[in-house]
Design goal:
- By secondary structure, the protein is α/β, with parallel strands linked by helices.
- It folds into two domains: about 20-60 and about 345-440, Aspartate Aminotransferase, domain 1 (Alpha-Beta Complex); about 80-340, Aspartate Aminotransferase, domain 2.
- Helix content is about 35%, strand content about 15%.
- The relative contact order is 0.15.
- GO terms for molecular function: adenosylmethionine-8-amino-7-oxononanoate transaminase activity; beta-alanine:pyruvate transaminase activity; pyridoxal phosphate binding.
- It comes from Neoroseomonas alkaliterrae.
């Protein structure tokens, strides 16, 4: 393919890259992406890179979808921006209704944000406002989980449990505690789908209730499947047990569905696949196929009613963003959800899941692979770290895969895979085959 005509940066200094080794990248710029279409990215030189990560867990319908692009273009020509503070524009209401068609029954109130991070912080604030509206203002404690990821706002980061994301920033929010993560049980190694052991780890919430008092705990926030920490799939019965304990003590259960939403597990949301309905649900990424930044929080109708009905005249919930329900984002969401429906993206994920599962677990005998795991169209391949160099082996595998034309994602020494839901068998074969070669090349 011919070289792609794109502006070339004359300096890399100005852009402080997020979650990146800036010093390494700016000394070796061979991993630039300039264009995307279907299942692939393309470098400025025109080299194809098969996308094994849906961008960053978000381009579920594949790249460059004309339907989404045209919807954004049309909307930009009609209404580029309108505030939603004490005003409205029709397309935001339509987008919210489209989201509510997919959420679990009873979670029909949708608050728009601009990212998963904002969604997490919004959900936590809704939980606090709800309890205060009901006269239980002592419920101020927020419970997360070790190895959980809920974005990089102060609320989500405080409730999150990934050490490197927290250690630079001090104490963060007060009144936060954490459940243990569900990973590491030897009986669950190389599990296909949900592992069978570990449901009782949810009982740690009872210990926190005994320690702090149920009357102080507002909410528990967990990912149905922990993604950014390296694909931790919940044990059978774990989320059900967590739901039961929350109900027993009047604690709200929040699912962070930023990764698991919009078809990734073969259902609209992870809640549907895993059989547990939360009180509040966060989302982003697949909501607009990442064409325009947008997030959302869906809440149980009774939570909305409690906050609104308890308020005096005027504003009921003192929270929001300038770009909440942005017209271009709303247009992108509507077009994306139409593709989600007409192309049955969850159904496509379900149809290819057995083939995907076999492919992921075919790596179990590769050098230094100590675990493989999967659910829906997610795969995790855990590698033994190099002595004294955690993360180095997986990083080397990532670079080898990119240079061979396949994009994977690594976190620590775990390779995480999450291709667009339009993936087909030849794509799966190429992703897994390239990864296997890279793992073998980094066997030493």
């Amino acid at each position: 393919m011919n070289e792609i005509s794109v502006p070339r940066p004359n300096s890399l200094d100005a852009f402080w890259m997020p979650f990146s080794d800036n010093r390494y990248f700016k000394g070796d710029t061979s991993r630039m992406l300039a264009r995307a279409e279907g299942m692939s990215y393309f470098t400025p030189e025109g080299r194809e890179i098969l996308d094994g990560t849906a961008g960053l867990w978000c381009c579920n319908a594949g790249h460059g979808r004309r339907e989404i692009t045209e919807a954004i273009q049309r909307q930009a020509a009609i209404l580029d921006f309108a505030p939603t503070f004490q005003l409205g524009h029709p397309i935001a209401f339509e987008a919210a209704a489209r989201v509510a068609e997919l959420t679990p029954e009873g979670l029909d109130r949708v608050f728009f944000t601009n990212s998963g991070s904002e969604s997490a912080d919004t959900a936590l604030k809704i939980a606090l406002a709800y309890h205060k509206a009901r006269g239980e203002g002592t419920r101020v404690r927020l419970i997360g989980r070790e190895r959980g990821y809920h974005g990089v706002g102060f609320g989500g980061m405080s409730v999150g449990g990934i050490g490197p994301n927290r250690k630079q920033f001090g104490a963060l929010l007060p009144y936060v505690d954490h459940l243990p993560h569900t990973h590491g049980l030897k009986e669950n190694l190389f599990a296909r789908g949900q592992p069978q052991h570990g449901a009782t780890l949810a009982d740690a919430l009872e210990n926190l209730v005994a320690l702090h008092g149920a009357e102080t705990i507002a909410a528990v926030m967990v990912e149905p499947v922990a993604g950014s920490t390296g694909v931790l799939v919940p044990p059978v019965g774990y989320l059900q047990r967590l739901r039961e304990i929350c109900d027993r003590h009047g604690i709200l259960l929040i699912f962070d569905e930023v990764i698991t939403g919009f078809g990734r597990l073969g259902t609209h949301f992870g809640a549907e696949r895993l059989g547990v309905t939360p009180d509040i649900m966060t989302m982003a990424k697949g909501l607009t196929n990442a064409a325009v930044p947008m997030g959302a929080v869906a809440v149980r109708n009774g939570i909305y009613d409690a906050i609104v009905d308890a308020a005096g005249p005027g504003i009921e919930f003192f929270h929001g963003y300038t770009y909440s329900g942005h017209p271009l984002a709303a247009a992108a969401a509507i077009a994306t959800l139409e593709l989600h429906k007409t192309e049955d993206l969850p159904g496509r994920a379900r149809a290819i899941e057995p083939y995907w599962q076999e492919a992921v677990h075919s790596l179990r005998d590769a050098p230094n692979v100590i675990d493989t795991r999967d659910i829906g169209l997610i795969g995790g391949i855990e590698l033994a770290p190099r002595p004294g160099k955690p993360g180095a082996r997986a990083t080397a595998v990532f670079r080898r895969c990119f240079d061979a034309g396949v994009l994977v994602r690594v976190t620590g020494d775990i390779v995480a895979l999450s291709p667009p839901l339009i993936v087909e068998r030849p794509h799966v074969d190429r992703i897994i085959g390239t990864l296997a070669e890279a793992i073998r090349a980094e066997a030493a």
